[in-house]
Design goal:
Radius of gyration: 19 Å
Shape: globular
Order of helices and strands: HEHEHEHHHEHHHH
Structural class: mainly alpha
Number of strands: 4
Strand order of the largest sheet: 1-2
């Protein structure tokens, strides 16, 4: 859809992942653990601005980046998207103005944690789930905490929070970001960016622990070999009680927001 967006006068900035591999955004905001309180540095702003303004730009810009809040690995140490405000202040300074709209898609904590763990397990050796789980249960930060930090750091005109299960189509999400009407948008095919199965994660972790360097093609081949279609089992490390705990938290947080 990049050409359609550009034709409508919208500059889309997104990273080159999955089927959007033509994306060029490499928005390397500093990691939370590298940010001192009040430590917004000019060099961070300059680097972010350089990325946002790379290539042809028009009056309207949409930035789409799932890691804009921070890296996932601290989450499994019990630090759920912390020190967001200085990251957002850097982004706001790089943009040169407050955004008109922030759209944040939020997911049930249980599903989110399992999906994130499975994704991380494709590229690095992860601590055992039994070690990770108590940290996740003890975490007190919420999606509401994140939304408040986005508001304080970016000062947008509007923040829209969308439950993952009700996110609709790409066109639905785009309509939340811009008033510009664009027809004929293509949807992301089903099965894109699917999580690895239990068997795939077991093999990936074993090979990564042996310090084997795995290319994206090798990782995808391992996922395909152990896919559900080939007899693999869905990665499901949580107990019913743990899932229920995270679902209660999520529903309470949606209501609070």
């Amino acid at each position: 859809n990049a050409a359609k967006l550009q034709g409508a006068g919208i500059s889309a900035r997104y990273p080159g992942r999955d089927i959007g591999d033509e994306g060029t955004l490499k928005l390397k905001l500093p990691a939370a653990e590298d940010i001192k309180i009040g430590g917004v540095k000019d060099r961070h702003v300059v680097a972010a601005r350089r990325q946002l303004l790379a290539g042809e730009t028009t009056g309207e810009m949409i930035i789409s980046e799932e890691n804009i809040l921070g890296r996932m690995i601290p989450i499994f140490k019990g630090r759920f998207y912390y020190r967001i405000i200085p990251r957002m202040e850097i982004l706001a300074n790089a943009m040169g103005r407050a955004p008109d709209q922030v759209v944040m898609v939020v997911r049930n904590y249980g599903d989110f944690f399992v999906s994130a763990y499975a994704q991380m397990a494709q590229v690095r050796v992860m601590p055992a789930w039994d070690i990770v789980m108590p940290r996740l249960l003890q975490n007190e930060r919420t999606w509401g905490t994140v939304a408040c930090a986005l508001h304080k750091g970016l000062n947008p005109t509007r923040i829209t929070v969308v439950p993952y299960a009700k996110r609709g189509t790409n066109a639905d999400l785009l309509a939340l970001m811009t008033k510009t009407k664009i027809d004929g948008l293509q949807e992301v095919p089903r099965g894109t960016n699917t999580s690895a199965t239990s068997e795939a994660i077991f093999e990936l972790q074993a090979r990564l622990a042996a310090k084997e360097e795995l290319s994206e093609e090798t990782v995808q081949q391992i996922k395909d070999d152990h896919s559900v279609a080939n007899g693999g089992t869905v990665y499901n490390p949580m107990t019913p009680a743990q899932k229920s705990t995270f679902t209660r938290r999520y529903n309470a947080d949606l209501k609070a927001m």
